[in-house]
């Protein structure tokens, strides 16, 4: 079986808790054939006091509903019931540090007429650091982010991630750790599944909204930076400008906060351990695990 589940793994499916190995999906599902579904990536953490805590579950489930509305997928679930179901699935699988994947998918429908119903599943599994723990060697991808006028960029839709998979696979095939995609105008957009920030002269910069999925972790970086008194500027910028940065990092639910070593084999000027990004990384870790930031910041020493 896949590493994500075994014979004892439980998941949530349309209001019931069932074994992952026995769950079924209709092979005529519009989601299976056309990528016409929406999903979320959420994390749970074991906090410093030993409790299980889902990070920003309300924000994630609000976005899941918004994504479904953008795609005209029927949506009848409440934030409260889905949060309760998620904690239950974590408990049934004896997981605390876990990745959580809710998916709203369409029924059998080989036409393009609107659906009258949808299905939902919530799956959980243990996840190692998604992009590893070392600094990343990033490559500018030959793939661009799709034209935002071609779809609802604010929706976390399943089919959109074919673009991400292609870019990430291309980078790895060329000996890099991850890809960076431009938008259709040649400006930096985002990574395959993460937003990007760079540091220059004590400020943080990140692409403006419009051609990106503005992530929940991205919003958290804004919050942490404000607490540190660090200014964050949203703007459009190019690869050439990014290569002159002092430091850079990706952020996302799966990626968390992970620094870069280089972009297209051009190393950044500053030591990552002396960067604002490193402080954000440690502050994020302290936030999600509800641990003392003072203790976490000792790692800087």
Summarize the structure.
This protein has helices spanning 30-34, 57-70, 79-92, 161-173, 216-228, 239-242, 276-289, 293-297, and strands at 10-13, 16-19, 37-39, 42-46, 52-54, 98-105, 119-125, 136-144, 178-182, 188-190, 195-200, 203-207, 232-235, 247-252, 256-263, 266-267.
Word description of this protein:
It is built from 8 helices and 16 strands. By secondary structure, it is an alpha+beta fold. It folds into 2 domains: 10-125, 2-Layer Sandwich (D-amino Acid Aminotransferase, Chain A, domain 1); 136-300, D-amino Acid Aminotransferase, subunit A, domain 2 (D-amino Acid Aminotransferase, Chain A, domain 2, Alpha-Beta Barrel). Strands 8, 9, 10, 11, 12, 13, 14, 15 and 16 form a 9-stranded mixed beta sheet that branches. Helix 5 links the parallel strand 12 (203-207) and strand 13 (232-235). The model has no long low-confidence stretch (mean pLDDT 94).
């Amino acid at each position: 079986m896949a590493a994500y589940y075994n014979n004892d793994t439980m998941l949530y499916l349309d209001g019931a808790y069932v074994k992952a190995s026995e769950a079924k999906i209709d092979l005529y599902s519009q989601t299976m054939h056309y990528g016409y579904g929406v999903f979320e990536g959420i994390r749970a953490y074991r906090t410093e006091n030993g409790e299980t805590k889902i990070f920003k579950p309300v924000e994630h489930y609000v976005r899941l509903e918004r994504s479904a509305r953008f795609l005209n997928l029927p949506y009848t679930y409440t934030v409260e019931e889905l949060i309760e179901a998620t904690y239950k699935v974590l408990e049934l699988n004896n997981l605390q540090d876990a990745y959580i994947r809710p998916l709203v998918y369409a029924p059998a429908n080989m036409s393009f007429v609107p659906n009258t119903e949808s299905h939902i599943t919530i799956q959980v599994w243990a996840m190692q650091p998604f992009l590893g723990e070392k600094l990343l060697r990033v490559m500018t991808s030959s793939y661009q982010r799709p034209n935002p006028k071609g779809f609802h960029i604010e929706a976390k839709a399943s089919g959109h991630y074919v673009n991400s998979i292609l870019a990430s696979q291309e980078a790895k095939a060329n000996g890099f750790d991850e890809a960076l995609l431009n938008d259709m105008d040649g400006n930096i957009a985002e990574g395959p599944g993460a937003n990007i920030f760079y540091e220059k002269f004590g400020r943080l910069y990140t692409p403006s909204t419009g051609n990106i999925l503005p992530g929940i972790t991205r919003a958290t970086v804004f919050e942490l930076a404000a607490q540190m008194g660090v200014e964050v500027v949203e703007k459009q910028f190019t690869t050439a400008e990014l290569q002159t940065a002092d430091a850079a990092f990706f952020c996302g639910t799966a990626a968390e906060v992970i620094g870069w070593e280089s972009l297209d084999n051009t190393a950044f000027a500053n030591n990552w351990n002396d960067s604002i990004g490193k402080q954000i990384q440690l502050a994020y870790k302290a936030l999600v695990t509800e641990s003392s930031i003072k203790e976490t910041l000792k790692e800087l020493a």
